[in-house]
Amino acid sequence: MRVAIPHDLGREEVRKRLRERSHEIADHIPGGMAQVATDWTGEDTMQINVSAMGQDLSGKVNVEDTELVFEIALPLALSFVEPIISSAVRQQGQKMLEAPSQD
Hints:
This protein is of the alpha+beta class. The protein has helices spanning 11-21, 82-97, and strands spanning 2-6, 35-42, 45-52, 55-63, 67-73. Strands 1-5-4-3-2 form a five-stranded antiparallel beta sheet.
């Protein structure tokens, strides 16, 4: 599954926001029981592994000039919910790109 989120922030700003907010990914997964691990394997590539509800998902996030691209391998058992997962990734990915609140 590939989900591209357009941005006009520049690569450096996108990397900064992802690094600052990647710990929030688990908060966006329904059920509150997800384990999320991230690892930057290159300047513009973040590996992501999610374990939730007995399923393990792995993928990567690529920072490009005008897009943030999520590539996630869905197990066959979850292929029927791909549109729901794709929509959630798009929505939460956009939230991660938003400027942090100034509380």
